[in-house]
Amino acid sequence: MGKLLERLERLDRRKLVYTSFVLGLLVVGFQITDRLIIEGQTKVEDSSEGLTFQSVNKLSTTPMGRFSVAVRDDGDLHPDGIADSSFKRPTNTPLANTSAGLLELWKAGQTAFGQYVTGVPFTVETGRELAANPLLDYAFLNLEQDYNINSALDLAEGLRSGAGSGTEDPAMDLLVRIPPMSEAGVETSRERVNELLAMGADGVVFPHVRSAEEARMAVSFFEGVNVWSPTNPEGDIVVMLMLETPDVFAELEEIANIPNYSALACGIGSLTRAMGGDREAAEKLNLEVLAHSQRVGLADMITANTESVARRVNQGFLGLLVYGPTANEVIRLGRAAAGR
After folding, report:
1. pLDDT at 94 over 50
2. Would the pLDDT of 80 be above 50?
3. pLDDT, mean over the chain
4. How are beta strands 138-142 and 63-71 bridged, if at all?
5. pLDDT > 80? residue 332
6. Are 239 and 263 in contact (CB under 8 A)?
7. Sheet containing 112-117: which strands, arranged edge to edge?
């Protein structure tokens, strides 16, 4: 308060009275839930703005809005009063250009960008490198071909140590894709889910789901777990199912209607190969998955490159995976398309 008075004491009495009046209105209007930052310009002739006020949400320091009051050369307030205003009520939706976790972005309807972690050493150092990239919202560890819990443990340790001192939380969410249940078996898949959750993974991805029955089995592994889903927006674990064979699409609607999981996606690369290289037909099925995901409130995820990322954002995919030397460029293009 002392600094505030120091900045205002050079203004004449009329300005001080008006400032006090405006402050009173703002405090009453926002029910003392906000703190105010005031920028008082003491040299009126240097600017036509005069006094500028900014309200900041006290919990997140997110700017709620600002307005300007013009001051005439004679020191009086401009007769038109407030020259510009953008005050809005605070909401729980994070600003589009701020860093947030995967689920925070999904709750806000924002696209999240993740690193497809494959073809690299699954080490602590790789985790640290991922943690050092401010563009990433999550990491997608691919253990489909060679499942090893130590790979997940090492990467998670790197994500934690790379987050900076004084925190045990990782720098970003970690999703782990396990081998298909049709190859590993039900009990082995269940054990892998349990050990991944025990080591702190934020989500598990099931590739090559072949039927609605298999999808229900995968979801049943998470009984008692706080899974994020359309009916549980406060959940903190991601369960994702991937459809990658042509026959399973006969049960697409049924699979989308299964409760208590987070994301439904089409593995378009595998599906294209299974359809003899017919990318156009595979894309049609991919968009059918997207439509059903959006219908029930599930997230959908797909890989993206520099040519496709803006289109995928505009189509409504909430999770985009990047990889290779152009990964950061893809994210920047995607963030621009998403308004982040």
Report:
1. no
2. no
3. 79
4. unpaired
5. yes
6. yes
7. 263-266, 238-243, 203-206, 173-177, 138-142, 112-117, 319-322, 301-303
- Domains of the chain, earliest start first: 2-85 (no CATH), 102-338 (3.20.20.60)
**Confidence band for 171, pLDDT divided at 50, 70 and 90:** confident
- Is the pTM higher than 0.85? The answer reads no
Tokens for 174?
């970690």
**Candidate from 3-7, 70-74, 253-257, 268-272 with smallest mean pLDDT:** 70-74
Residue in the structure block whose two tokens are 């777990």: 225
pLDDT cut 90: percent of the chain above it: 67
Q: Other C-beta atoms within 10 Å of 233: how many?
A: 11
Q: Are strands 77-85 and 301-303 parallel, antiparallel or unpaired?
A: unpaired
Q: How far apart are CA 63 and CA 57, in angstroms?
A: 6
